[in-house]
Amino acid sequence: MHLLDLKKDYHVHCNYNDHSPQDLSVERVTRYAETINLKTLAFTEHVRRTSDWIPKYLEDIDRIISSGTKMKIIAGFEAKILKDGSVDVPQEYEGHFLIASFHTKYYNKRDWLFSLKSAISLSYVNVIGHLAPEESFELCDDEIIELSQLLKSNNKTIEINAKYRRPPMKWLQTFKENNICFHLGSDAHSLTEVGNFDSITNLIDYINN
Ligand SMILES: [Zn+2]
Ligand SMILES: [Zn+2]
To answer: What are the Cα distances from residue 51, in Å, to 93, 129, 139, 141, 145?
Structure first.
């Protein structure tokens, strides 16, 4: 059994992406997380192979860690699953905590499944973020079971995502039966979203009970 700990948020953004408020600094997010008594805070900024801000981002996080905080702080990334089955992260940062997510639509189940299975098999991917099928296709039971087995054999964690309320309950049932590891991600792009899982109480209750 893998119970979800509501004081651990494994998916938080800050102001190194182009669509969060500019004042959403690593320091402000950390101070806010302290006030709500988080135990674990993972920064997972959107990254691409072309991102040039990574050293400064990691420096900000290092500075916060060495400033002394009781929280466990993780310096990580969220990267896009690409159609060639790779994940859009620069090679030198492959050792960091990494969430692989779909950020573009495929409109094609076969291609989508190919990329997903390939991402799951990559050793440097830790988590599959906000996983759900696209509106234009569904997975049958056998396909969900096969995915579960692949997640299990590759030791991947499935994120329970508060922003998109994913994965779908039906998938969670199969994942839970297959004893997949879960954790929570708020996918916060603003302060008050950090550590806030109110939108997915039903998913959390299903896993924890
Ligand atoms: Zn995402
Ligand atoms: Zn995100």
So the answer is: 11, 20, 34, 38, 36
**pTM score:** 0.97
Ligand 1 centre to CA of 177 (Å) is 25
pLDDT digits (tens, 9 = 90+) for 38-72: 999 999 999 999 999 999 999 999 999 999 889 99
By CB neighbour count within 10 A (0-12 exposed, 13-18 middle, 19+ buried), where does 41 fall? buried
Residue with tokens 């779909």: 102
Cis before 167 (ω within 30): yes
Encode pLDDT of 147-169 as tens digits. Answer: 999 999 999 999 999 999 999 99
Query: Three-class SS string for 28-67?
Result: HHHHHHHHCCCCEEEEEEEECCCCCCHHHHHHHHHHHHHC
CA distances from 46 to 10, 60, 185, 189 (A): 13, 16, 14, 11
Ligand closest to 43 (CA) is 2
At 118, is the secondary structure helix, strand, or coil?
helix
Percent of the chain with pLDDT over 90: 94
Tell me, in angstroms, the distance from the centre of ligand 2 to residue 154's CA.
Answer: 22
End-to-end CA distance of the chain: 10
Classify residue 199 by its DSSP letter: G
